[in-house]
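hey so u asked for the seq, here:
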Amino acid sequence: MELRHLRYFIAVAEEEHMTRAAERLGMQQPPLSQQIRDLERELGVQLFDRTPRSVRLNTAGRVFLEDARALLAGAERAAVRVQQVTRGQIGRIAVGYTSSASLHPRVPQLIRAFHARHPMIALDSQENTTRDLLEAVAGEALDAVFVRASAKRYPALSSLVLDQEEMVIALPIEHPLARKRGALALADLAAEPFILYRREDGPGVQDELLAACAQAGFAPRVVADVPRLLSAITLVASGRGVTLLPRSLEMLHRESVRYRALDVASAFTIPLTLVYREPAAETPLARFVEAARARPGDRIRLD
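ran it, structure tokens below
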């Protein structure tokens, strides 16, 4: 029994007339009648009560019609699904992010928009350090990651800068500089105890910070070396020292931390970067990168 037999049978059952069913199917009536007889022989049952003017389903035919419709619908769904897989509309991708990158509004916005446009692509996520995330992409354990660094050390990987975010000063709430209004010069921190991030866990961020301090005429006096930006905020909140953070982290520990902008001469930014293995066309990862390249308000194709 072939799918065409099911289509022929359904057409005859719905039209209750061989000639009308043949016209609907775009074929001649004699071959259609022969195909229905062949189907009945294969099943070993009569499906229709026949009269000179019409053919009507009998009890066996009504039961078979229900199953035939389900079988045909299932086959059509299977064809659609395999086409969707081929076009990258169904599948799974694994995405990672650092704790600070996850707090940038662009990250949840992108993931939410992607899921809305491609609900049949599952997205697994995990948080880790920059180094471990980049190693995971290079080792194909993850497909793409959001980090605050470049991927220069991984020439086989591709990257897309999603934003250049201003850095701000984080001060303990009781610090004298916290009471000053307006922007501060980076040189104002020359004598302050600094909370710094480990370079092996955050390549790029520490480099930018140290370069900015050098341009301001000093090397920071480091009192704590932490693996994550969120750890740095916690130490600032406890009064251990000062640090510099991306502006999107300003909402954290506001009861015990004061944030101040850098003045024009001191201002610098760090990137929010999507790092990924270059995807083949029409794959779930290609869809994700396409969504990341789109600017807010752009239309992203659904097919």
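The CA atoms of residues 100 and 229 lie 6 Å apart. The radius of gyration is 32 Å.
lmk if thats what u needed
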